[in-house]
Design brief:
Largest sheet: none
Order of helices and strands: HHHH
Structural class: mainly alpha
Strand content: under 5%
Distance between the termini: 45 Å
Helix content: 55-70%
Number of domains: 1
Length: 95
């Protein structure tokens, strides 16, 4: 297990409430793909939309994931959520 990160994403105190909801749903979808829909992390992320305690439980479960799984999930979340430039179109694709 890696050490917990500083507050990020939906756990950041400065995130807008609407963005927080979107990030929780995004993380829940990624968690379903990464660890399976029956994993408790998915349920806690969905519950965190209404319950701050669930958000803390979800963060603890995220921190407890095996490092490779956690890194893949967070890397994808970061790419999707914090993309700074538009995606490049493949050569030969229509405008």
């Amino acid at each position: 297990m890696t050490s917990p990160a500083a507050p990020f994403g939906p756990w950041s105190p400065s995130v807008d409430p609407v963005e927080r909801l979107a990030q929780l749903r995004s993380l829940a979808a990624l968690a379903e793909v990464s660890v399976g829909s029956d994993h408790r992390l998915v349920a806690e992320l969905l519950a965190a939309e209404r319950d701050r305690d669930a958000a803390e439980r979800a963060l603890a479960l995220l921190d407890a994931l095996p490092s490779p799984t956690r890194r893949r999930l967070l890397s994808t979340f970061s790419t999707v959520t914090f993309r700074s430039a538009p995606l490049k179109k493949p050569k030969g694709s229509p405008p």
